[in-house]
Amino acid sequence: MILDRFVLHNFGPYLGRHEIDLSPAPPKRPVILFGGMNGGGKTSVLNALQLVLYGRRADIWKGSEGSYDAFLRKCIHRRADQQEGAGIELTFRSSLQGAEQTIHLSRYWRVVGSSIRESLDVIRDGELDTVLAENWSEWVEEFIPARVAPLFFFDGEKIEAMASPAKSAEILKAAIHSLLGLDIVDQLKTDLEILERRKRKESGVEKNDSPLVQKARDLERDHEKQEERLGQRHQALAVLRNESERLAKRLADLERQLEQQGGAIFESRHKFESDRDALLKTSRDLEDELRGIAGSGLPLALTLPMLGQMEEAAKSTHDTAVQTTVLEVLQERDGHLLERIRTLKASKGLLASVSAFLDEDRKQRMAAGSGESPLLDRSELTRVHALRSHVLPTELARSRNLLKKLDDIELQIQNFERKLAGLPDEEKILPLLSERDGLREEVAQVARKQEALMETLRIDTAEHERCKRDLDAARQSLAETMLDDEDTKRLLQHSLKARATLDQFRRKVLEGHVQRIEKLALECFSTLMRKQHLVRDLRIDADSFEVTLQGEAGEVVPADKLSAGERQLLAIGLLWGLGRASGRPLPTVIDTPLGRLDSSHRQNLIDRYFPFASHQVILLSTDEEIDQDYHRKLTPHIARSYLLDFDDRKQITTVRDGYFWEVAS
After folding, report:
1. End-to-end CA distance of the chain
2. Strand pairing class (153-155; 588-591)
3. How many C-beta neighbours within 10 Å does residue 425 have?
4. What CATH number has the domain bearing residue 565?
5. Which of 11, 24, 192, 559 is the 20 to 30 Å CA partner of 544?
6. How many Cα atoms within 13 Å fall on the side-chain side of residue 538?
7. How far is Cα 270 from Cα 272, in angstroms, rounded to an integer?
């Protein structure tokens, strides 16, 4: 099934006629992206798609107060002519009996006197089909059965509800029952029970006072009391769930208000103060360390150039001193040499020549030296060299490193000071925080009551089933021993057997299909998770419909131990798996799916879910959910983008081509 064209006329916030092209591009671009602010008409698109398909059978109006007609009346734009009314049109392609056909639905309604008049026209392959229109509620089951629609049309609230361990089992049960058609089986069992009751009444057996009849009556009374008690339990549970949803909405609104007024920063003030104080202590320690360095040899670093000059001068004078000593030794040696030459009776000319040569050599060596005394001895010169080359540079580097750390810490301290200085007014925030904490406690109390009531409900249900089995056995005995009318006896016996067979059939269907659903849901959840080794297996209990996760080592991973984002990914994985299990190639429509997910989980949905959820994905999002970065990554998969531009002053939404910043540019 492919949705091609969608028209909203005076529906919700859409005044006038708005035509929207939904036809997808090539297969690699399945996403039709709608952008809109909260309250701007995104949910109206989701509701309109369901309303045009199912009309009175759509679930969207059943949660509101009043009748279906009252719901339709509210859907007409307040500034529209009530007699003109509102309408929705949808054009889609679908295969039926092996051939593709184009269906155009046109559902309109208007106010006539004090009532609502609704009409539905169906055009198939360009021709008006009145027969199809009159029987549309049956025909639509061929295209997209109402029982599986919730697997393909869902919003962030449904994801959040399914992510709640207290609610997920019931939602999953309803989804699997609808998917497998087990609601029809349950209805058939109820019809058989009504038939049995009527036949027993007609036979007159119930007027008999035999022990067998009395036992059946007692069991029937017990059964009725238990059914009444179960009904009360379910009603009380529904009240608690409504209260939980109401409180959760109030809490979410309050948390948004707190966030807007800086509540998160205000709550972090103690941590800010603690972190700032820790930084101040570190700063003082660094300053003490710097003072310690300054009190040692660091000031000598100012004389490093002079120390270099002194070292060079010391080396020079030291060399001169060495030269002077050498000359003294040479003069003594030269004297001994001339004396030796005389002893050998050398000629006077040779003696004079050698003496002149030695004198000249000493004069030249004397001229090379300055004759200055050495500034430093050898050990002193070594210490000066070590000071200049190693000690002072090391201290300088250490002091510079400490100063850099000190500068960084000062910047952090200034940042904390700015945050603390910008804290909101305590008189405004404290009442909101107190109300928030009170609401959280109320939510927790309701959750505890729900959990306790669900446990009681499980016990009562088990007792009800036991009583039901005893009652069926008693009725079977009654039919076999007390009835004279063979036809009635045979009918009751066959009806009892049929109900038992339906129970077995229901169990086998669940066992056979739940395993497949488990496998598909695990595949989808694993695809969405960034922690690939967190969950190895997923199990769905066929009785309670509770989901159990197993880790790598086979240990149970409780759902409440997952983070809020991981639980939402689990909910999406379950819905995705159920959709795949339906075996129907249907479009997927998702409204505000990212509200409570962190960035990494959002990234997983952008990369791994939206492009592959279906062959056609209609995505309704705010600019904070799919921002510029996510939009850029999703762009290769987007066929069309629309902005639902809401004018708060006129209370009108206009459909524009392009996403938020694309329209702005």
Report:
1. 35
2. parallel
3. 10
4. 3.40.50.300
5. 192
6. 24
7. 5
Would you say residue 14 has pLDDT above 90? yes
Q: 400, 421, 442 — which closes off a domain?
A: 421
Greatest Cα pair distance, the chain, in angstroms, is 174
- pLDDT of 381 reads 63
Residue among 556, 462, 457, 450 at smallest CA distance from 166: 450
Q: Is residue 493 part of a domain?
A: no
Residue 499 within any structural domain of the chain: no
Q: Residue 548: helix, strand or coil by DSSP?
A: strand
Which amino acid is present at 347? Answer: S
Exposure of 317 in the CB half-sphere (CA atoms within 13 A):
13
Q: Are residues 655 and 535 in the same domain?
A: yes
Last residue in a domain, options 384, 404, 421: 421
**Sheet holding 86-96: strands in order across?**
14-21, 2-11, 86-96, 99-112, 115-124, 127-128
pLDDT at position 652 is 92
Whether residue 469 has pLDDT greater than 50:
yes
Nearest to 69 by CA among 55, 79, 87, 89: 55
> How far is residue 366's CA from residue 68's CA, in Å, rounded to a whole number?
124
- Answer whether 376's CB lies under 8 Å from 324's CB: no
User: How many domains is the chain partitioned into structurally?
Assistant: 2
Mean pLDDT across the chain: 79
List C-alpha distances in Å: 462 to 3, 90, 224, 232, 469. 46, 47, 15, 16, 11
Q: Which residue has the tokens 């045009």?
A: 52
**Contact partners, residue 319, CB within 8 Å, separation at least 6:** 369
Cα torsion 584, 589, 595, 601: sign: positive
Q: Do 390 and 535 sit in the same domain of this protein?
A: no
List of residues 6+ apart from 331 with CB closer than 8 A: 362
336 lies in a domain?
yes
Spatial distance between the Cα atoms of 401 and 405, rounded to a whole number of angstroms? 6
In 10 A of CB 246, how many CB atoms?
A: 12
Residue 529 and residue 398 share a domain:
no
Decide if 188 contacts 624 (C-beta within 8 A).
no
Contacts of 98 (CB under 8 A, 6+ apart): none
Q: Angle between the 156-163 and 564-581 helix axes, to the nearest 10 degrees? A: 110
Asked if 416 and 516 sit in the same domain, the reply is no
Structure tokens given for 155: 């919003």
28 with 150, same domain: the answer is yes
- Mean pLDDT comparison of 31-45, 284-298, 365-379, 427-441, highest-scoring range: 31-45
Distance of CA 426 to the CA centre of its chain: 32
In a domain, 69, yes or no: yes
Whether the Cβ atoms of residue 35 and residue 644 lie closer than 8 Å to each other: yes
Q: Are residues 111 and 9 in the same domain?
A: yes
Question: 166 and 33, same structural domain?
Answer: yes
Q: Which DSSP string corresponds to 393-411?
A: HHHHHHHHHHHHHHHHHHH
Q: Are residues 20 and 167 in the same domain?
A: yes
| Residues 189, 498: Cα–Cα separation, whole Å | 8
- The domain in which residue 22 lies consists of 2-175+511-664
Helices 269-294 and 392-421 pack at an angle, to 10 degrees, of 160
Between 334-343, 400-409, 538-547, 592-601, the lowest mean confidence (pLDDT) is in: 592-601
Amino acid at 41: G
Q: Which residues contact 332 (CB under 8 A, 6 or more apart)?
A: none
* β-pairing verdict for 617-621 and 638-647: unpaired
